Amino acid sequence: MNSQENQQHHSIVPGILLALLGYAIYSTHDALVKSLHDYNVFQIVFFATLFGYVPFSIARIIEGKPVSLKPNNPGLLTFRALLHVAGLSLGFFAFAKLPMVEAYVLLFCSPLIISVLAVWFLDEHIALVRWLAIIMGLAGVIVVLRPTPDSITIGHVAAFAAAFCGAGSAVISRKISATENMATMILFPLLANIIVTGGALYFVYVAMPFSDLATMFLIGVLGLIGQYFVLRGFRSAPAAFVGPMQYSQIVWAILFGYVFFGETIDRWVLVGSGITILSGVIIIWRERTTSKVQANLKTRNSRMVGAALIQSSEEDSRS
Fold first, then answer.
1. Is residue 286 part of a domain?
2. In a domain, 91, yes or no
3. Rounded CA separation 97/157 (Å)
4. Structure confidence by residue, pLDDT tens digits, 201-234
5. DSSP string of 48-97?
6. Residue 100 lies in a domain
7. Which residue, 39, 41, 165, 29, is CA-closest to 94?
8. Residue 12 is assigned to a structural domain of this protein
């Protein structure tokens, strides 16, 4: 390995480690969401948004240059914001209803869905390798779930719908990012979260003991910290190396599920998870050099609002 390769290797490692830390924090966040299954999902989302998403969004808007908040694509921005709210709510609901590993495997269908949606909305051509990766990913999901009419629950439907919402939001982000400023793209989902879940709170609110309120506060804070480390990771190393680190959440799901929720994992769940992870990694590496939706390597996590506008180290070097 020559000195240039050594230097590149050392520059990539910190970004990977930062992302691994961020995704570990996200997994802790998701375990806490699962622990609050007695509350309506809109109540959890509202307080998670209030304690984590609001300060993060304000900080992201403030750190940018002063810009007009007038949207250039109000229709798409509104649709993206609603997809974000739906994806977040459905994802939280899925964690409450499913074993953590099953929820993650279905949520990790998002890059597969992005690839398909890009054909219609971004005029992207999908090469044979990516079609095979998509089929492989779906096969992995089938291995995990081994679906029968009696085995598919509302939780599975919610998790897949959350993945679809996240993918739709990511594709819209890529489509409009050249004509919208960061502040507007962050502000719309923020307002949508507050309006939709805040409005629903009137109908579903249940009084909480201090311990549960503290847990909701911690969920918000962990979401904030997780975003910080993941975004730092993407700024420190190429997306093609950092993106696959999200699959480390499967390991945490197995650990947290077993220790805190008494979930047992059979070998077919592990095999199917491995197949889905491999398909996602293949798609990421293909997008690294050939895809028009390369920015979406940084937006598959529906909780990362404004991630389409985050510069990776590759983009920094071209700036």
1. yes
2. yes
3. 11
4. 999 999 999 999 999 999 988 988 888 898 888 8
5. HIIIIIHHHHHHHHHHSPP-----S-HHHHHHHHHHHHHHHHHHHHHHHH
6. yes
7. 41
8. no
